[in-house]
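Final report, section 2: Outcomes. Of the targets proposed, HD superfamily hydrolase is the one most frequently requested by collaborating groups, and we therefore present its record in full.
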Amino acid sequence: MNSEQQLNKIAEYSHAHMTQDRTGHGFDHIRRVVAMARKLSAKENADLLVTLASAYLHDVIDDKLVADPQAALDDLQAFLTEIEVSPQQSKKILFIIQNMSFAHTLDGKAVLLPLEGQIVQDSDWLDAIGAIGITRAIYFGGHHSEKIYDPRIKPRESMTKEEYRNLQNETIINHFYEKLLKIKDKLNTPSARQIAEDRQQFMLDFLSEFKDEWQAEK
Ligand code: ADP
Ligand code: NI
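The predicted structure is given below as tokens.
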């Protein structure tokens, strides 16, 4: 199987595993992450199959989405072998998707990702900021019955992974301070940092306008 055929199979596999979710992890998210990974790769000397495969697969073993992450991982590994992805590439893909989440960067336990993983992580994070990031946060918050805003809730610094996962009283606006505004400084590649600049400003403008309007309600 050539790499184009492998990628088509991987896209199908990803699609079959992602279509259930409607909380910001739909296949539209995957498509944008793949497209961005392709774009960022143009400036980097990365293995394109590993990069795009990791982009397609980065959410299929997420413990927020699957009941049994180990079973999902075993299934994925068998699938990669079946479509003749080399053991070295397969190992790299599995390492990347297990270690690239935002939660992994908390607790000071961040794992150094190979270049392909850095590109996919940047692509995933870029999809959480800017206009799309705002929309996804509202969509997610609505689905999880979060309040829109509560001026008494302050951003928490230096949370542990557990605390981050179990965050109570999260509001949609607070999520920007907890996570979205911090993404810009966590990006790995210069091209992603460049793209993040406008998106950051757009979110800051949005928050400032939001708070002005909220005040006016009082
Ligand atoms: P990923 O696994 O793709 O890195 P997450 O599962 O953490 O991302 O989140 C998916 C989307 O939902 C992101 O756009 C993220 O900003 C948003 N989101 C996550 N947690 C919250 C929250 N508590 N409130 C609002 N939006 C959230
Ligand atoms: Ni994602």
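DSSP finds eleven helices and no strands in the chain.
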